[in-house]
Amino acid sequence: MNAPTRGAWLRAGISRDGGPVVETEHVVWLQSGDYYADSRGFAGTTSYEDGQVRFHHDVGAPGDDVGVLRAEGEGLIETGTNTDGSTFLEVWTPLPGSDGQDGSWCAGEAPPARSRSVQAPPVQARSVRSQSVRSQSVRSQSVRVGRHIVHVDSTGAGAHYVLPGPSGQ
């Protein structure tokens, strides 16, 4: 299956090389259209080919993640092989508070268009939700899904923020 086009997901566990599923971190993945941000410190765009999803690391930690997603109940299971040959299985559960607005914003130089022939002029900060882009010059990216925001900067620092709910929750 392709990655969902919109969602806020909390990692419930990870298995490495067939070992037990454990969780020792607070890891959040937000997806808004083609754009994603992962609180482990990388963000960018997603693409799909031959049943595999590729998370392009356009901001933060270098590299790309390639895996296969499958639905399991309301959650997702992601499996794949790392560049060093080790394998992983990640369990993702939906986060409450993901209804409402969503979008993705980059700061830095304007990224070159990947699938469009028109390139936007450089600006300090802009919404990139309507464009499919890939860039090595983007300095930070934020994705919002409902009450959740993940921000990643060029050093690979990622953070998950939760906006207050309608009653200040």
Would you mind describing this structure in some detail?
This protein is 0% helix and 53% strand. It is globular. An 8-stranded antiparallel β-barrel has the order 1-2-3-4-5-6-7-8. A 5-stranded antiparallel β-sheet has the order 10-9-11-12-13, with no helix packed on it. The protein contains no helices and 13 strands. The protein has strands spanning 6-16, 28-32, 35-38, 42-49, 52-60, 64-72, 75-81, 87-94, 102-108, 125-127, 138-145, 148-153, 158-162. It has one domain. The model is unreliable at 110-135 (pLDDT under 50). With 169 residues, it is mainly beta. A hairpin with a 3-residue loop joins strand 5 (52-60) and strand 6.
- What is the share of helical residues? under 10%
The total domain count is 1
Q: Strands of the largest sheet, in order across it?
A: 1-2-3-4-5-6-7-8
**Strand-pairing-aware structural class:** mainly beta
Tally the helices.
Answer: 0
Global shape? globular
Gyration radius (Cα, Å) is 16 Å
What percent strand? over 45%
Note the main sheet.
Answer: 8 strands, antiparallel, barrel
Mean pLDDT: 84
What string, H for helix and E for strand, traces the elements in order?
EEEEEEEEEEEEE
What's the count of strands?
13
Oligomer: single chain
Through-space gap between termini: 34 Å
Low-confidence stretches: 110-135
